[in-house]
Structure formats: structure tokens, C-alpha cells
Amino acid sequence: MNIRTRNLISKYGQKIQVTKDNKKTYIHTKAFIQPLRCDMQSELYGDYTDSQNVEQYLYIGLSETNLSNSEDAIVIVDNIDYKIKKAEEVIFSGKVLYERAVLEKSTS
User: E strands along the chain, which residues?
Assistant: First the structure.
């Protein structure tokens, strides 16, 4: 991971928790979470921008969290659970810079 990217996320990101095993263990980390705008153009967002009445969120976080290989993980922000709709690594010059994902509030 690019050191500058890691520093930006670690310094300015929100404190979040990630659980991958049905809330038995938690990973405490930082990430950027913001509402997903419909005008964002990417394969990552295209599948989900037409969801009616469901607010979606963009997640940008450290690659070590490994959401792209754990799509059953739950992201917890301010005691609200979010499920992962789609996640991927962002790669530049053969190096993973960060991970991004589309999140929705969990109904369970």
C-alpha cells in the first residue's frame, strides 16, 4: 500500500469496526464513509445506483481490511451495521492503494 494513502486514511478516516465472523471478533480501523452519489461513474457503482429507497454509501479504506475477499463482512460505523454490496481493490502500478466498496445499512 502506498504510504501516503495509508497516512491519509489513518489520520483523517472515521473510526470503524469490521467483523467477518458473525460478530465474534472485530477489526478496529479507519475508513472514509460517505453517501454514494448517483453521478459516480464506475463499474463498482453501476450495479447499485438504481436501487430504489435504499441509501448506499461509498467506503474507502485500508487494503489490509480485505473487504474484497470477505463480502459477508459487516462494517460498523457509529453503532450502525452496513452490509457490503460490492468491494474491490484499487490498484495503481501493480500496488494495491486502498479498497473501495458500496455499503447499505443492514436490516438485520
Answer: 14-19, 27-35, 56-61, 74-77, 80-92, 95-105
What is the per-residue pLDDT across 20-29, written as a single tens digit (0 to 9) for each?
A: 877 788 999 9
Q: In whole angstroms, what separates CA 37 from the centre of its chain? A: 15
DSSP conformational letter for 11: H
Closest of 38, 55, 68, 48 to residue 105, by C-alpha: 55
Report the C-alpha gap between 21 and 19 in whole angstroms: 6
In terms of DSSP bridges, do strands 95-105 and 80-92 run parallel, antiparallel, or are they unpaired?
Answer: antiparallel
Question: What pTM did the predictor assign?
Answer: 0.83
Residues 14 and 32: beta-carbon distance below 8 Å: yes
- Chain centroid to CA 23: 17
Quick count: other Cβ atoms within 10 Å of Cβ 94?
5
What the block records as the C-alpha cell of 17 is 469496526
